[in-house]
Amino acid sequence: MVATVTVSTPYSEPTIVTTLIYASLFCLLNISDYVLNFLCCGLVGQIFIGIAYGSPGAGWLSYQSQTELIDLGYLGLLLLVYEGGLCTDMRMLWRDLYMSALVAAVGITGPIALSFLLCEIAYASKKQAFAAGAALCSTSLGTTLMVLRTSGLASSRLGVLLTNAAMLDDLVGLVMVQLISDQNPGSSHIEKSKIIRPIGVSCAFIVIIPLACILASTLLKTSPPKFEIDWFRSRHGKLFLHLLGLFSLITGASYAGTSNLFAAYLAGTIITWFDSAGTDASRRDPHFSPEATVTNENTALQPAITGASQAIIEDTTTGVDRNVVSRSRDSKRYFSGRDIYAYYLEQPVSRILKPCFFASIGFSIPIRSLFNGAVAWRGLVYAVLMIVGKLMCGLVLIRPGLSFFTALDRHGERTTADIHLRHIQARIATAGPSSTAAVPPRVNAIRPAQPASRNSNEDDHSTGPNTTESTTAVADDTAPRAVEQLKTRSLYPAALLGSAMVARGEIGLLISSIAESNGSFGDADMNAGVSQLFLIVTWAILLCTISGPLVTGVLVQRVKRLQANERSRDTGRANPLGIWGFR
Fold first, then answer.
1. Using CA atoms, how far apart are residues 169 and 265, in angstroms rounded to an integer?
2. Where are any strands of DSSP class E within 425-468?
3. pLDDT of 152-190, one tens digit each?
C-alpha cells in the first residue's frame, strides 16, 4: 500500500473553545508568575496550572496540544540555560570550580544513598532503589536558573557556584538516563559505552571549545581581518551569529551524545568570554567608546561619518533619515550577548516559552493516582529524605576554621591584602607626609575625621614621624577589616545553596518515566496502571520541585530585608551573605 503524502496542510479556523482555552492558559500562566514572584517561585503556580489544564486534571488540552507545548517549553528551557551562561562571571566560574564539583558530588551521592531506605519503606529491591535514587539525584537546571534570575542572585558568587553544580548534576542525570534505559528487568549487564560516551563528549567540549576560542581570539588580535561587514556588528548581525553558535553547539552535542542543556550553557559562557576579551571589531576601532554609545545614543557619531550623514542627523523630520541614523549608530555601538538577549529574546522567553516549560512539567504528574493512602505516606517520607539529601549540599559552605579550604581561602585573602598594604606603607615611609594623597581611598575612608579647630602648632607636629606611625597603624588595621568584610556572617549561604538544589523537575521526571516504561520499578498496579514505586518517586519529585523554590524565595526575601536593615543602620554588615551574596 502506497503511503499518502500530504502536499499542504489546509488552514482551518480553530473553534472558539480552543481559542478560549489557549488564551486563558497563557493569561493564567503569566498572572500566576507575577503574583508568586514576590517569593521568587512563580514557576510553582505554572506547574499547578499545567496539572489543571493537562491530562492529570481537567484534560482541556488535547494530547497533541500538550505535546506541542512540551516542545515549545523545551525550547524555552534551552534559552533559559543559555541566558544562565550569558550571566556567568568567568572569573568566579574558574575560581569556584572545585567547590562546584564538591557540591555536585554531595548532591548526587546523598540522594542515592538515602534511596536505599526504600528497601525498608516500600519493600523495593536494591536495583529498584538505585533506579529511584538515579531519578532523584538530578537537579532541575531550568528551575534553578529561574529562581536565581528572579531573586537577583544569578551573577553572584553563590549563583555561579549553584549553576555549575546543577549543570554537573544534569550531566550525571544524562548518564543515569542512558544507564536506566539500557537495563532490562532480567539482566544486570550494563553497556559501558553508554556511560563513558556522555562523560567523554562533555569533557571534550569543555577542553576543545575553549581552546578553539582562545586560538580564534589570538588570531583576531594579532591579524585582524582586512575587511569587515558592518552588518555583523549590528543588533541583527549579532543575533544571527549568537543563535548560529548556540544551535550549532546544541546540534553537535545532541549527535555526539551529551546534554543539550550543557551545550546551551557552554554557548552562553563562550559569548560572555568573547565579550570580556574584547575581540570584537568594534572594540578594536580606535574611535569606538562603548561607554559613550551605550549611555547616550544621542551623541554625535564617529568622525568617519561624512558631512552628508551629519546633515541627516540634524534633520529629524524625515522618518527614513532617522532610520539611516539608527543603522549608522548601531554599526558603531558594541552589543554584548546580554544586550542582544534582552532586546530580542527576553520577553518571548519570559511570557511564552518559559511558562510552557513549567506547565509541561505539570502535564507529566499523575495527580489522580497519587492520593492513595499507602502511596501518600511513603511518598511524603521519601520526599523528606530527598530534601535532606540535597540540603546536605549546603554543608560545603559551612567550613570550620581549621579546614583546608578555609585556610586556603583566608590565606589568599590576607596575603593579597598584606601585599597591598606593604606597598602603601613603603610609599608613606619613602615619600613622607606628602604621601597622604597617594593613599588609596579604601585606607582614607577608615581614617577618623580630624577636628577643624587644629592650630598651626598641631599642624607642624602632624608632619613629623607620628603621622607616619598613625598612618601605618591605620594601614595595619585595614587587612583584618578587609577580611572581615569578606567573611560569611551567617548560615544563609549554606541554606540558600541547599534549598536551591532541592528542585528536581524535568530530569527527574524523565529518568523516572524511563525506569517505569522498561519495568525497573516493578510490575504495574492493577488500579493505578503504574507501579507503586513510580508513584512514590513522583511524589518526591513533585514535593521537591515545589518546596525548593518556595523555601529559596522565603530565604531570599529574608536576606534582602536584613541587608536593607543593616544598610539603614550603617552597621558595616551590609551583606548577610558575605562574599557569596548580592553585588
1. 14
2. none
3. 777 778 888 888 888 788 777 767 776 676 655 555 555
Per-residue confidence band for 79, with pLDDT thresholds at 50, 70 and 90: very high
At 81 the pLDDT is 85
Treating both helix axes as pointing N-terminal to C-terminal, what angle do 192-222 and 157-181 enclose, rounded to 10 degrees? 140
First-last CA distance in the chain: 67
DSSP 393-406: GGGGG---TTSHHH
Are residue 201 and residue 146 in the same domain, yes or no?
yes
Q: Which domain holds residue 122?
A: 16-288+334-398+491-580
pLDDT of residue 60: 94
CB distance 144 to 166 below 8 Å: yes
Place of cell 581581518: 225
Residues 37 and 181 in one domain: yes
Task: Convert the pLDDT of each residue in 194-231 to its tens digit.
Answer: 677 777 888 888 888 888 888 887 887 776 666 667 77
Would you say 398 and 494 are in contact if contact means Cβ atoms under 8 Å apart? Answer: yes
- Up-side HSE of residue 309: CA atoms within 13 Å toward CB? 14
Q: How far apart are CA 99 and CA 93, in angstroms?
A: 10
Q: Verify that 365 and 486 share a domain, yes or no.
A: no
Q: What is the dihedral of CA 126, 503, 344, 265, to 10 degrees?
A: -50
**C-alpha cell recorded at residue 548:** 525548593
Residue 308 domain flag = no
**One domain, residues 529 and 518:** yes
Cα separation, 79 vs 77, in Å, equals: 5
The C-alpha cell that represents 422 in the structure block: 606593604
256 or 289, which is more confident: 256
Q: What share of the chain is helix, strand, coil (3-state, %, to 5)?
A: 75, 0, 25
Question: Dihedral through CA 504, CA 506, CA 511, CA 516, nearest 10?
Answer: 110
Which SS3 state, helix, strand or coil, does residue 199 take? helix
**pLDDT tens per residue across span 308-336:** 444 444 444 444 445 544 555 555 567 88
Residue pointed to by grid coordinates 549590528: 234
Residue 82, all three cell numbers: 543559555
Radius of gyration of the chain (CA): 29
Best CA proximity match to 82, nearest among 163, 18, 153, 5: 163
pLDDT tens by residue, 375-419: 889 999 999 999 999 999 988 888 654 444 444 455 444 444 454
Judgement on whether residues 477 and 537 belong to the same structural domain of the protein: no
Q: Which of 248, 96, 95, 105 is nearest to 168 (CA)?
A: 105
Nearest to 36 by CA among 546, 535, 481, 424: 546
Please report, rounded to a whole number, the percentage of residues in the chain having pLDDT higher than 90. 17
Whether 461 is in a domain gets the answer no
Higher pLDDT, 525 or 71: 71
State how far the alpha carbon of 414 is from the alpha carbons of 420, 480, 481, in Å. Answer: 10, 8, 10
Q: How many domains would you assign to the chain? A: 2
CA nearest neighbour of 69 among 83, 82, 54: 54
pTM over 0.90: no
